[in-house]
Amino acid sequence: MELLPLHLFMRLTCIHAAHSLAPARCCSSKSSATSKKQNNQMDKLRAEFECLEADLQSQLDREQLSDEEWDIHCAHAEAIKKRQFTYDDPVTLNRVMTRLCHFLRGKCCGNACRHCVYNHENVAESVRRHRKFNSSFWVDGETEAAQAYRTTVCSWTALSVLHASCDVHDDLLFKH
After folding, report:
1. How far is 176 from 91, CA to CA, in rounded Å?
2. CA-only gyration radius of the chain, Å
3. Per-residue DSSP letters for the chain?
């Protein structure tokens, strides 16, 4: 397991503690002015993240998500609501970092993470071109829902073409 740099660990600990009912103890040894400055920074970061999260939630399109993707979205939303940095993927059972964790990192790590909030800006182009945002999180290629929609549209289109090119003039043959 990779350890976080101390300054990032302290930042995450302070922000996590600031969300609990008890006052943050990680900054208590510093002067009052320093504590106020850090609290202001935490409040600013919290507000910035909440704005980002609200914007992403407003763009959510349930129709684009498969049932599995919806389960993942719900697990992630629950973790965000609890201000957690990770959650267990309900499909693979892997531990996955939330958008909050990625946001606090401050930049894209380049690993094509599922909940990257930095638009995969440091991901290699060869990988990035195969990643799609399904309105909730990043996935490989086309989502199952999009594939099903495309298949349905293609099937109806093919049926219409077949109907138009058919020499049989039986209207009931191609009744839908």
Report:
1. 37
2. 23
3. -PPPPHHHHHHHHHHHHHTSSSPP-TTTTS-HHHHHHHHHHHHHHHHHHHHHHHHHHHT--GGGS-HHHHHHHHHHHHHHHTT-SEEE-TTT--EEE-HHHHHHH-S--SS--TT-SSTTTTS-HHHHTTEEE-SSSEEESS-HHHHHHHHHHHHHHHHHHHHHH-S---TTTT--
Q: What are phi and psi of 3, to 5 degrees?
A: -85, 145
Q: Tokens representing 117? A: 């909030």
Instruction: Report the share of the chain in percent with pLDDT over 90.
Output: 54
CA–CA separation, 126 and 28 (whole Å): 47
User: What is the distance between the alpha carbons of residues 70 and 59, in angstroms, rounded to a whole number?
Assistant: 14
Type of residue found at 124: A
pTM for the model stands at 0.61
Length of the chain equals: 176
Q: Which two tokens stand for residue 52?
A: 């980002």
CA 40 – CA 8 distance, rounded (Å):
17
Q: Half-sphere exposure (CA, 13 Å, Cβ side) for 53?
A: 21
Structure-token pair, residue 26: 């990680």
Q: pLDDT tens, 10-34? A: 454 444 444 433 344 555 555 677 7
